[in-house]
């Protein structure tokens, strides 16, 4: 995690550095800092807490100069504190570095450098970088960074400046994202595109172990062997407004409301009535699809929950066995993978370290990889064999909402595409599902109108310490996502439970007044779900239940019933998750939590 930025040009660097960091604050926000070079002197300003603290500091003590780097931190090594904040500087105070990632062998490098006379003042892994660069510095900062990087293990995106060469900014990445922004006589580095979007739409995506030298005259990209690399400029077409709040109080609320559009965009040109599903970005052949023996869906967090729905959809529609697993477990358990395996990696950011590592493991063992991601040019999109983009637009709130529902759409598209190729569904069956999918944006708009009811429920229940989310089948998959949303932004402990499993232990936790959210959209198990709800209401639980319109039986058991527009049960998650997102949002805002930047979290998890 962490966000880094850098600027070289003719204007003052610090306004861009602060603005760029504000666009990257979703990547980490426990401290921030900048380093700027002016008249051969390095000035560093950094402090614990939100970026606003740094802005105040700079207002009182301006940082002048036209070359600089900046950092917003999500602590891994060393608590959030002024001293542990980036940028970090070498013992002599001539070289400054911002870093996103983890230097795994930093302890051995540190011991080695201490023996050479270097001094260390922080608990961070990053502090070894400026000192190692200093050790190798013989008058050429690019060469020194190259040598230093060759000794470093782990993940990094780094930006380096030195007082010795005040006309150069050097950067490099491995397993952490980094882009280069191309302006007019000014150039930028950043962890993500929104940081530079007010200044340029032309960017380079860097690959692992590519070095970039930025001067006021231009940008040079080099391989680790020093060979110059020619890159294509990527022109960003989406609007900077997409990453602004647009009148909503929080990004999360805005992104919840953007879901109808995001769903529509993700289906556009892929789901067309009467036409076979055509996936221009997917090259897997019909023959290859028929030869798939096993699919692994690998992801983390919310993307994992989308994968749970994906498993149901692919198995049901395309009749291929699917295992769904969190990436951090999958990669370390020696899974059975061969050429007949397909791995589907799901990741909003396309940069999640564990998901990327799982993808690499699968490829190494001969599997084919399809990525579902929201970020064009992300590491996962570049390393997968095929990519199915979710067209959700930038998701800024740490809690994922529109990424999840568009990932569900991507899962249905893949399931239908496989079914079409394998002939496991008739054309009529495929057309029926497609027709229903196309109604989902409008139905989501309907669901969004029920927000007052959810808000009211939240205002009566926000004081609970625990909550339960119950469901069976696909409703259980959605319950998991609803529970995660609530936990991460409102800090209320909650558990999602497969409703039929409750009586095997967990029901002991139900007592008079326990708040329970029950989902009952799956028609074939509706009666069973109603019985499960009765099991908790009998023990005094207060239940808010969701079912399809017309399924009023639920009213006999719950305290409050809400209905969502009817659709095919397999598509229900797209609609039923929306009130749960709103519930988490209102619970958190009523409690006064920082919804967009919940404690201890960051949006893009680029450490394992
Ligand atoms: C929760 C949330 C996280 C992410 C997870 C994976 O709201 O956003 O659980 O889903 O960190 O991130 P991506 O999808 O970027 O790989």
Commentary on this structure:
This protein has 608 residues and is of the alpha/beta class. It folds into three domains: 3-243, 4-Layer Sandwich (Glutamine Phosphoribosylpyrophosphate, subunit 1, domain 1); 251-438, Rossmann fold; 449-591, Glucose-6-phosphate isomerase like protein, domain 1 (Rossmann fold). It is 35% helix and 22% strand. The chain contains 18 helices and 24 strands. The strands form four sheets. Strands 3-2-4-1-10-9-11-14 form an eight-stranded antiparallel beta sheet, with helices on one face. The chain has a six-stranded antiparallel beta sheet with strand order 5-6-7-8-12-13. It is globular. The termini are close together. The structure holds fructose -6-phosphate. Residues 300-303, 347-349, 352, 355, 399-400, 484, 488, 605 line the site of fructose -6-phosphate (F6R).
What is the gist of this entry?
With 608 residues, the protein is α/β, with parallel strands linked by helices. The chain is built from 18 helices and 24 strands. The chain has three domains: 241 residues, Glutamine Phosphoribosylpyrophosphate, subunit 1, domain 1 (4-Layer Sandwich); 188 residues, Glucose-6-phosphate isomerase like protein, domain 1 (Rossmann fold); 143 residues, Rossmann fold, CATH 3.40.50.10490.
